[in-house]
Fold this sequence. Notes:
The protein has 17 helices and 15 strands. α9 packs parallel to α14 (420-441), α11 runs parallel beside α14 and α15 crosses α17. The termini are far apart. The protein is of the alpha/beta class and 533 residues long. The chain binds 6-O-phosphono-alpha-D-glucopyranose (G6P). Residues 122-125, 176-178, 181, 184, 237-238, 322, 448, 451 line the site of 6-O-phosphono-alpha-D-glucopyranose.
Amino acid sequence: MEKLQLWERFKDRLYADAETGLVLDTSRMDFPAKFSAELEPRLQQAYAQMAELEGGAIANPDENRMVGHYWLRAPELAPTPELSEVITGTLTSVKAFAHSVHNGNIKAPDGGRFTRLLVVGIGGSALGPQFVADSLGNAGDRMRPYFFDNTDPDGMDRVIAEIGTALPQTLVVVISKSGGTKETRNGMLEAQAAFQRAGLNFAAHAVAVTGVDSELDRAASQQRWLARFPMWDWVGGRTSVTSAVGLLPAALQGIDVDRMLEGARRCDASTRRTATKENPAALLALSWFHATAGKGAKDMVILPYKDRLLLFSRYLQQLIMESLGKEKDLDGQVVLQGIAVYGNKGSTDQHAYVQQLREGVPNFFATFIEVLKDRPGTSGEVEPGATSGDYLSGFFQGTRTALYESGRESITITVPEVTPFTVGVLIALYERAVGLYASLINVNAYHQPGVEAGKKAAGTVLKLQGEILELMRSQQSRAFTCEECALALARPEEVETVFLILRHLAANPDHGVHMVSADKPWESRFQLRAVAR
Ligand SMILES: O=P(O)(O)OC[C@H]1O[C@H](O)[C@H](O)[C@@H](O)[C@@H]1O
């Protein structure tokens, strides 16, 4: 398409909203007018389903749950007064708690102020808080945030070492909606052990965000943690960033959570519109449907030209892939749906994988995120007439054009700057786009049945490990190959798992398993020795 024709299309399609500051350009998506018209009845149906969801319908049928993340920033829309109250009450207590921590009414047991924040969580209980912390954090924040978002011992050691001598001033926020996620449980126990080693009383540093009466909730209550904040079954983990899950860490860090909620609330209002051209989330869903043929045929590459938005693609990976990546649709048909999401940031990625995007396999569409404001205040010139920020903008425009010239489509989202308000807008925009798109492809966006399989399999591995260790303890003098071990356990078919377990056990001093290597790794012998702890 000629440049001036593209300009006409740009003007014709541009979505610009003064209230949210959001601008959405779909001119580099080559769908014909006919495509939008064809999809319109399905979009109207999606709006109707969304209205039902917001009205409190059981929009997550197989878990028999309501889906209420939109109420978190508009409590008056919750279907019952009790729910409205619980939302406002929790927000008030989150802010009051953060305020008391900041002004020293809630202090560290040594009498000092809490200046560090260690968040323990995973998935939806980490990605949102991490994105918010990184996008809005600054050197002068009230508290400096750290994260345990895995069960990797070395990863946790590194964080504890970074906190270093500030551990006595560290507040630990353990977040788990279910309260039973093993990685988070382990992170909590590792944090507890680190506090104990430092002679500190963990409970006096610990706060929980979790479902009422969950395993975590009970532990926190029995051990008299500093505070507990609720999570509800009608908020999904990946849409929980505007609940206490995201708000508590953000408020503690000193981020203006009211503005974040306000951004989300305003964006929600704009994405409730049933005139598709005026609904930015619908325009995104429509673009995704076009780009991926409604079947995930292409990947979504997220390219924010702003360091602060680096973690947005990771956050969106869960939001989009866990919501849309489904084997079956709502009618039980096998559909193998989803859209793969990846990305990092521009212009950095131009020096990495953009080569392939420009010339290689055309299996993606890009989403550029442009931030108009470069930095607070003015910039020096890096050459006559140009600043670093001018370059960033030039690189964004250059890549957008270069991709389009080689037949690669893109969407561009523009926000004026990265603030709590615009972060709220972006979060709400994608939450709604995912919901609408899920309606278009007829999948339940609010469950994640596939995740359980990996968790169950991990449980089986840990159980088998217990059996192996027990066997080795009962035959201390014997050195086993993995095949002998599997046979002795009467589990010959599990030999590969036995091998992988033994190899891991022998690489670590914890269980006293020693390995005598053979040429072929699977012929190595394993034996128990006394553990020196
Ligand atoms: O918040 P939690 O209950 O600990 O759950 C953390 C994560 O666990 C699971 O793997 C789910 O698939 C995610 O959606 C969830 O965010």
